Amino acid sequence: MIGLERFTRGRQPVVCLDFGRDRLTALEVLNGAVTRWISRPLPQDALTSGDPVLPEYLGDAVRQALARAGMVSKRARIALPDEATVSRQVTLPPMARRDLARAMQFAAERHIPFPIDRARWAWDVIAQDHDRITVYLVATWRDVVERYAEMARAAALEPEVLEPRAVSVARALDQDQALVLDAGLSRLHAMLVVTGQPTFVDEVPVGTVVLDEREALDRLLQRAYRHQSTVAGLPGRLAPILLAGDLEDADLPLPVAGRPVSEVLNGQLPHTPQGFRPGAYLANLGLSMRRSG
């Protein structure tokens, strides 16, 4: 969603990379099917607030992981960590489509919390009626995009798409409303989806004992509920909870019921082979579904 959209036509494999959840996950897709996949812990100093401050260092780690998995594709789609991006739902008055670009320029200058000339940003209309137009706006620092592109080249890849991780995950889910809980190596993650779009992303560090995880989950749920309560038109109860990644199989009591995310994934996902755990590769799968152009 943020620039670098140079899709190559034809039946060629593509590798989809995700740097969220303290891990590097990658999968290769060919002809609508997952052919290879791999998950590896990220070096602790690989990212700073989602920014690959040493692109060649991270690129070397990516290159080694792809070689280990036997992936041969040079085309890459990349999910940017959410902490490196900002997103906003913007409401505009009714207007002709030809006027939207100028209106969004003004909206971006207002809603992006850093200088617009140092940003890479994009937008999509997600709802429109006779009263208003709702637009989803995403942005990141221009330097961050350039460093991810440099990282990809260091891994001998050709970067085609970079977009926020939450956008990729929401595409894989295709749910109108949901709260996705996921676990990294040292953090618990939450993403709230409303009207099909991610509206809230948060994380809490965890320790090594179950009590810490339970407290972290309670904290995330409370934050998500407070955010949901500010969104007009939503019911009083929290959105349905979906458990992803390691939480799908974790024996961790929840204050409210949840279900494995693999039970409700988008029906248009690429074909996955036996033994593949889609709940651990949500952003990668969402990237693979992105239409070209």
What can you see in these coordinates?
This protein has helices at 55-69, 97-111, 142-154, 165-173, 210-229, 282-289, and strands spanning 14-18, 23-30, 33-41, 75-80, 85-92, 119-128, 133-141, 158-164, 177-183, 187-194, 197-205, 241-243, 258-260. Helix 1 packs across helix 3 and helix 4 packs across helix 6. It has 293 residues and is α/β, with parallel strands linked by helices. A hairpin with a 4-residue loop joins strand 1 (14-18) and strand 2. The strands form three sheets. A five-stranded mixed beta sheet has the order 3-2-1-4-8, sandwiched between helices. The longest helix is centred in the C-terminal third of the chain and has 20 residues, at 210-229. The chain has three domains: 14-82 and 142-168 and 283-289, Nucleotidyltransferase, domain 5, CATH 3.30.420.40; 85-140, Dna Ligase, domain 1 (2-Layer Sandwich); 175-264, 2-Layer Sandwich (Nucleotidyltransferase, domain 5), CATH 3.30.420. The termini are close together.
